[in-house]
Design goal:
It contains 19 helices and 17 strands. It is an alpha/beta fold. Strands 10, 11, 12, 13, 14, 15, 16 and 17 form an 8-stranded mixed β-sheet that branches. Strands 1-2-3-4-5-7-9 form a 7-stranded mixed β-sheet, sandwiched between helices. A two-stranded parallel ribbon has the order 6-8. The longest helix is centred in the N-terminal third of the chain and has 17 residues. It is elongated, with a radius of gyration of 26 Å. Bound molecules: hexanoyl-coenzyme A. The site of hexanoyl-coenzyme A has 17 residues, from helix 5 and strand 6.
Length: about 500
Amino acid sequence: MIEILEELERRRAAAHAGGGAVRIDAQHARGKLTARERLDVLLDPGSFEELDMYVEHDCTEFGMAAQRIPGDGVVTGSGTINGRLAFVFSQDFTVFGGALGAAHAAKICKIMDMAMKVGAPVIGLNDSGGARIQEGVASLAGYAEVFQRNVLASGVIPQISVVMGPCAGGAVYSPAMTDFIFMVKDSSYMFVTGPEVVRTVTNEVVTQEELGGALTHTAKTGVADLAFDNDIDALLAVRDFFDLLPPSNRCPTPVRAAADPWDREDASLDTLIPASSSQPYDMHELIRKVADDGDFFEIQPTHAANVLVGFGRIEGRTIGFVANQPTVLAGVLDIASSRKAARFVRFCDAFEVPLVTFVDVPGFLPGTAQEHGGIIKHGAKLLFAFAEATVPKITVITRKAYGGAYDVLASQHLRGDLNYAWPTAEIAVMGAKGAVEIIFRKEAGNSERIAGRTAEYEARFANPFVAAGKGFIDEVIQPRSTRRRIALALRKLRGKSLQNPWKKHDNIPL
Ligand code: HXC
């Protein structure tokens, strides 16, 4: 009996050794943790239950019969994060460079299937050379099996990808279809074709980092959401983030005991809006003063920063915040910000996270770059996302709400449930200057008359009361009372039940 038990321990030790000490040292020398060390940071101590530790590939090509390593380059199973269940896979770069073959893929698919069955999120730690070359088309089949599950799981369970090493070729499409992507600076990259191929095909010389590193994807492309200095920072951030998410679309987000009084007023908000309407102010300040304990987990802070999106809590419950940011491009909506906010709104709606929208928007960004880049289609994404969302939607217009952007940003006309405005709100088809230039074009040469007309327009429209007079704004509120108003609105809306008409699926402008 003792020998049998020892055999078990020997087999376990072989699996734990992965690709061996030399490759583990090489992983550490690059500043990277191993697959198992990463899971130790991510999950509650002692909570990880590994599955399929002894699975091996059955490939015999290219000398592979002699190279079988238990676990086959990916550690899979489940564990808890602050007591809540998560399914995980962590690719082991020390085993065949973390490359994915049939058995490796089957292990990932197994935990994805379990996660779907029980309704729990999947967190994937990606560190892989891509399709395992020796296994040929079986590797491609394995990827496709994972992709198919990513798609079916989308909107059912939250899926988080942490890219912590190479992620190239078609392999990028699994993280791309998950809800959130975190990356580690300098050690991770994502691209469809690498620098060598780029140089051959286009003559461009570019480094891995420039082409698809964490900074490129979190600032330029928006493919990834957040970039971290090292593995540990990234994994600890996933733990914090996980606390905000529901386990599935069948269960509500966790409620955290809130010490922050729901009716806390903040007098400093009364002076947040500068005297001049062209002067910026930082919308983070409003979000932080409204959210419990000032906590705001911002998504994509360095991409399309003219719109802010992220999660906070009110009365301990997760809220999705969407807000124009006047300090960046005056908070205008453009292609990148429309896409960023639309995807966020759709995540919140899929997982029943109420939306709070703070509006200070001068409109959509003019210019050939925007028009030819398809602002019509991309702006429509945000309009579509807000319009189809059935979660509680609360909107506060702090200052400008001009033109189509007024409609788009969770207006009452798009089934906004409670739409508030601060007394500083300006709700109109456009700003005074543009409006007067159009409707009083004949008086253009007369600067005195134009100044008079502008003042008249401002007096008439640069306020919330025209909209409030039509019932489009439910109440004009004191800025200091914003948290209290939102908390009350959220309480009221907890029983909200609204269904869209049956359809196979919609046809959002992609
Ligand atoms: C099998 C692989 C592998 C792969 C790496 N290895 N990639 N084995 N299939 N795809 C093995 C190496 O042989 C090596 O084994 C170990 O992993 C570490 O690799 P190194 O090259 O020594 O490491 P490094 O210098 O850090 O370079 C890492 C790398 C490079 C950039 C990932 O290995 C690389 O370019 N690999 C090929 C990437 C690729 O073209 N993948 C296919 C992409 S297409 P030993 O035994 O020496 O430790 C794709 C299609 C998916 O993924 C399609 C889905 C639709």
